[in-house]
Design brief:
Number of domains: 1
Largest sheet: 9 strands, antiparallel
Structural class: alpha+beta
Strand content: 35-45%
Shape: globular
Number of helices: 6
Distance between the termini: 52 Å
Radius of gyration: 20 Å
Length: 210
Amino acid sequence: MPRRIVPSWSLASLLLAAVLGTGCQTTIGNYFANRARDFGECFRLQVGAGKGVGGAVRAGGLVHAGLLFGGSSRDLGIGWVYGSGYAFGAGASGKKGSDREGGFTILNFDLHEELVPRRGREEELVLEEHFCFGLLPAIFSSVNDKNLWTNQALNASPRAHVHAFDIEAEVHALFLFTKVGFSPGELVDFLLGWFGADIAQDDRSLQVTD
């Protein structure tokens, strides 16, 4: 009797159907939902209106360099910022928060502030100030006046450690801007997440309701 071979894509489809069928309110559904969020947190893409001129590159924790002075508003554009999406200021929940983002980069000096998701609360955004000299910023950066690698900063912002090696570029052309980025740290978090590790400390626990 000939042996029947099941195509791998069929097995993948069955697995996907099983996950979608269980929903997020089950252990397996929550597990795969966290993996999907981890993957989305690897990327950044923003476009919109702002005020500024110049460009800057933040290259994997090795150097921050450029000639840039500018600011942007989430109310005047769309974007995806490492797992947090928005359109004209409103996130997935429809709520709006502060929209202030901006800073400057002069050769090997970088000072900027941006909105980042609070740990475990995707819709709640807080303002973080980043300050560093351009060489080896992953080591010498400070976040909100705390050195990135002190115990105090470690407890306050595990996200800052994960994003210390981000690769980013941004361009401001008078009244338009674009920002792109990729986070190797979030990619490691995504890969380790399949084995139960959560170095970013942002996985959501299963919420059981009566």
